[in-house]
Amino acid sequence: MSASSRAFRVRTVIAAVLCAGGLACNSDSTSPRPIPTDAVAVSYCAAVTPTWVAFRDGDGAWTRETPSVTGSTTTFRHSFTGNRAAIASLTPVLGGEFLVLRVLYAAPDELSTDGDTTSSDCLTGAFKSLRGTVAGISTTEAAFIAVGPFARTGVVPREGLDFTIDGVATGPQDLLAVRTAEAAPPRLILRRDLDLPNGSVVPTLDFASTEAFDMVTGTLTIGNLGGDGNPVVDFSVLTTPHGEFFLPIAASGNGSPQPYLALPADKMLAGDLERLHVSANGNTSRTADLYFRTPTDRTVTLGSQIAAPTISVIAGGAAPRLRARYVAQADYDKLSSIVYNQPTSTGFIAVSMTPAYAALAGGYDLDLPDLAGVPGFDPSWALKPGVINWTATRTGGTLPLAHDAKPADGATRLTSLTQGTITLP
User: Fold this and answer.
1) Which of 55, 198, 332, 366 has the lowest tally of Cβ within 10 angstroms?
2) Domain coordinates of the chain in residue numbers?
3) Omega of the bond leading into 257 within 30 degrees of 0 (cis)
4) DSSP code of 108?
């Protein structure tokens, strides 16, 4: 594998790890939480199931739990007597090429949302291939076709108008086809609930037909830029009950205000939602996601720049352990996280904490715990002396961070990220 290819895959893993620890948090993070009497259940589908899981009740010992399996769902359970809890898990990523050790400090009733049983992450069974043809497109244009959450292909007319699209999930899936041109707005075809047998031919996608429609333009104003210039819309996404699709973005989009592209309001059905992902980069990286249904002029306000954590070494233990200490920041009231990785390792370690836990613990001390004595823990999963890269992120906004969080019109997610390096002798 080339160095650039591995770097890209490392960034992909870091991005996935930063998203994986997301929890749905109470907006009143200082409110006392009830002590549960029943076991907390954390469930995963087969594709994302950890191979090792342990829990901790308050400041007690870590306890490994074995799973129960029902159909394609694997569940780990643990009973708590206190109002502070933690879960540690080891998950293979990208077919086992990387390993992710994740530690999450939260209230007991928040741990369940560390699981993942969302449909897009849990597709199983045989996938289908479909064939088709595009029309109403010139040789200087291009078309992109997507079916459901994953199946994607493109058409370059000078090479032919036929296409084959693989990886189509079973069951009803929405189809989105996009025609792009330099001098005209993108033109779309959106078909709902497509459920054709494997090998079927999709009826012709004709961008000159009445089925096709143009995207429309709105104006986006980006607030709280501070000293960061040239914010950009990195991507735009349409989510429907049966698909998730990246949309074209305005070619001239940068600065504030700037144009953005969207579907006409009359093409949006119940359950549809669009999302703009905005970023501004200076001393730190800040992003904002804005969810909406109508293409009106809109404003999104970035969160403050992340205050980098203070990273120190925790004495004792068989392997190096680090503490990342954050100060409270009002803009980031959902989750604080840090990811460690080493240049010579294919392992990643992510430590996260919710505001509910921090309020009870007296602050944001994200400690990498000593797990060496927990049955099944492999010492190779721990940090080693030498160079350690770290990526710190904080998350806020109105959108809960559970994998199955249901965003509403107007919901936002704010993040800020910074990176650094520490060397341990």
Assistant:
1) 198
2) 3-121+308-394+401-424
3) yes
4) G
